[in-house]
Every structure is written in C-alpha cells, then in structure tokens.
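Q: Predict the assembly, please.
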Amino acid sequence: MTAIEATDTDVGLAPRVAAGGRRRTHLALALLAPSLVFLVLFTYWPIVRVAVDSVTLTTFGSKTVAYGLGNFARLFDDPAFARAVTNNLIYAVGTVVPSIALALALAVGLEEATGLATTIRTVVFFPVLIPLVAAAALFLFVFLPGIGLLDHHLAKLGVPRTNWLGDPDVALWSLIGLTVWKNAAYYMLFFLAGLQAIPADLYEASRIEGASAIRRFTRVTLPLLGPTFAFVVVIALVNVVTQVDHVVVLTKGGPSDSTNLVLFYIYQQAHENFDTGKAAAATVVSLVALSALSVLSLRTLERAVHYET
Amino acid sequence: MAAPRTARRPDPLLLLGIVFLAAVALVWSTPLAWMIVASFRPQSFGGLDMASLTPNFTPTLANWREALDSADFARLYLNTAIVCLGILTVQLVTITLAGWAFARLEFRGRAVLFYAFLLQLMLVPPILIVPNLVTITRLGLYDTLTAVMAPYFASAFGVFLMRQTFRTIPRDYEEAAIMEGAAWWQVVARVLVPLARPGLVAFSIVSVVAHWNEFLWPLMVISSTENQTLTIGLASFTQGAESASQWGVIAAGTFLVAAPLMTAFALFQRQFVNSFLFSGVK
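A: Predicted assembly structure:
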C-alpha cells in the first residue's frame, strides 16, 4: 500500500507541474490560507507572544520594559513551580506506565471478539467518553473520606480510612488513579488494532517451533507492537501536559501544592496572580518540553503510519 | 484467526487472565454504576450508605429535579452544541481544502508548510491558553462562544488525517472528472469528498468528543452564566452541591453531562471505535 502511494505521488503530477507550476502554487496557497489564518492567530503568534512576554516585565501603568531572563529567574526561584515540575514528572510516569501496561493486558485479553469480551470492552471504554470534569465530579465522592465509594468498600476489607485528596502524600496518586481509570481503555484501542495487524502465520510458525504462550508474547507480539507502543506513549505524554481539568475541580493544586501540575501553575499565575511574565516563562518551558517530545514523535508517527498502512 | 490459540485444557494462565479481566471490568464500571444508583437514591438516607451500590430504596427523581433546577441545562446543552458544531463546520472546510492541497498538489515550500502545520499537533492550543486569551480579548471576543471555538478552527490533526485519506483514493477518479472538464473544486466537492467520507466521519466524531469534553479554555474565556458550556456549568454546580454534600444531585448532574456521548457511543459503537482508531493510526 505504502509503496504504491509513494510512486503514485512521485510520478503522478510531474508533467502537469511543469506546465503550470506557479498557478499550482497560488492554488495551493489559496487552499491553505483558511487554515493558515487561524494557525497564525492561535499557534504561531502566541508562541512569539509568550517568547516576548517571557523576557519583558509589565509594570504598573502598563509600561513594558525589557527584563532579560528575570522572569525565568523568578520562575525557577519559585518553589511552587519546582513542585509543579516534579509533580508533573511523577504524574507522567505514574499515569503512562500503568495505563499502557493495563491497556496492553486488556487488549491481549479482549482480542477475541466473543460476546463477553465485547461487553467488557464497552464497559471499560465508557470512562474515555465522559468529560474529565465529569469524571472528577464523580471522583469527588469516590475519594470522599469515610463514607465515599473507596473508603466504604475498602472498609469491608479492613482497610483504614484514607484522606485521598487531603493528604499531601496521597493526593497526587489519587489523581493518577483517576487518570488511569479514564485513559487506559483509549490506549487499549490502539493495541487492539496493533494486535490485529500481526499476521496469524507468525504465531503459527512459533507454535510449530514449540514456543510457549509467554514466549510467543515476548518474541512475536511485543516486538511487532513496537510502533504502537511509541505512538501510544506520545499521546499519553501529550495528555499528561495538556489535561488538568481534574486538578481544577478536585484539588486546585493543593494540599500545599502537592497536586499542582505545570499547566495548572500557568493558569494560576495568569488567572489568579495576573503575573504575565511568570506565566509566559512557564509556558516557554512547556513549549520547549513539548518540542523535544515532538522531534521524537514525528519520527515515531512517521514509522507508525508506514507500519499501519 | 485467534481460535487455534485458545487452550483446551484449563490453563492456569487463562484462569489468571479471566480473573484479571473480571476485576478490571468491576473496578472500571463501579463509579458509573454508582452514578446511576446514587442519582435515584432518596436524599434522606443521610449519606452513610450513599456509597452502597445496591438499589435498596424506592427510586426518586428528587436529585434529578434539583440538578435540573440548579443550572440552566437547556442553555448549557445549546451552547455546547453550538460550540461543537461551529468548530466542526469550520474545521471540515479548512481540513478538506488543506488536506487536498497537501495530498495532491506539488508546490514550492510544501514540505516546510507541512511541518509548520504539524507543529500544532504538538504545541496544542491548551498549552497556549495565556497568550490566546490576550488575542481573544484584543479581538473583542472575550466572553463569547466564538472565543471558545476560534483556536480550533484550524486543525493540523484534521489536515494530516485528510491528507492520508485523500492519498488512499486512486487518482483515476479525479483524472476522469478532469477529462470531462470539471474544475478542481468540482472534483473536490463531487468526487473526493464523497469518497473521503470515512475520514471525515472519523474526524467529526473525534472532534465533537474532544470539544464536548473541553474545560480549561472555556473556563478562561467565558465569564457570564449565559455563555457557559456543559463542563463549566457542571464544575460550578458541583462546587455548590459538594459543600451541601448532595452527592445524589452531583451524580444526576454528571449523568446529564456525560449521557449524550455515552448514548451515542452505545448506539454507534463500531463507528466510534473505528473513528478513534482511524484518527490515531492513519
């Protein structure tokens, strides 16, 4: 499929391009223009804007002065920001690893489309569709100390009550639990598709060679799911950086910044403290992190595309 | 295909797998099951067995009535629908045009422009909320539904998706139409768009789900009650109900917000799953 497409694009238009190259370019720009207008307004310009804001300071009387790296210095001196970055890293590892392990296990377990497997797939997929805010609203009660869903049922197993959102040592892990619940089945979908793309005769061959089920999994399934893994890790990491709705509803970053994530920190600086410089500097840091991730992901995306088509 | 792999004799691995799947299904469904049970539970129970999942009570609609009274749900649904459909309508135009240009036209700077588009795939609008708020305010759009929609009118993801979709359509169709004297826009509208329907449907579902669920950006650009979307409405309503410990009301309210997409999913499951996959993999 890929090979056919490639030759198709390479040869297909060549003679016509020679005939009307410039007209083609004008037409192409006209077609791209509607998208470009909005990309300039809401992607390129804001990037320039935060870059400028991050090195300037708006004083009282809204005079703007150059401030060098002052905002970054203030940002890195702020223990709340350091805490947000640390939290975000813990949150990243804490959500991505279990979500993906679970997603893979579910995909392998539910691969055969029997009646029961399809029902379980549907059940675990519902959390993907509900808004993160709605999930957070539900988990207000799930996490409620004493009478909430978790404590009520754990008490029957003899587990003492926990202050799921009020204890600074536990709160971030509660949010991680909520995120895994919400996202695991989304990643499962990609693994299900990845599994279906593995040729059945590969399994047959390794079975004839007498390989055990576990060996077949580690030698055939896992390596061939490589591109799917890379792809899912990237989407999961983007989610880690861009979704803080549950922080807003459940904890507002507290107690004592134990659940503050970088995007929520940015929101606080801009919306509550009106500290544009600091918010811009923090945004620049996030953009750099995302850009690093995107260099990695463009490669994996490209590979995933080649693999799947 | 998978049938020969099933073990015939009781395999400890298989048993373990079944126990694991049952456990996950149980844990995953509990919060939603609770939501439904709790929304019908009479409030007079005092909250001590609020967490119980057994419907050991006479169902009441009191929670639902209270939820519906404490927020203007009709308005919230309408605003959310306007936002989702508004974004989608503009997106379908922008991504079809740009997707076709990238799929079929050779032009100078194509590679550079394509990467410039892909930038938005990673540097996603949520991270740019602070500067975008400034832009929105300068454009005089603060506290309007247009402000909620505007950053999403261009979609790199959609363009990428449509480019891939157009590339899977054989050129013969277009060439035949061009031979018959059709202009490029007629080719796109009459030949390619119908053939690209799976891609457009997939994108539409993913887009609507994403914006139905969106929260942080509307929270920043909307200030008046009459412009709130469902997620904003739910958040402020939850705050009130939480301080009054009205968990049944929160359950009913959450259900009202989540129900449309969950119903749509239950009805068009295959289409939803294919869309999510299509959007991710292609």
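Residues 73-104 of chain B form the longest helix (32 residues). The CA atoms of residues 7 and 14 of chain B lie 8 Å apart.
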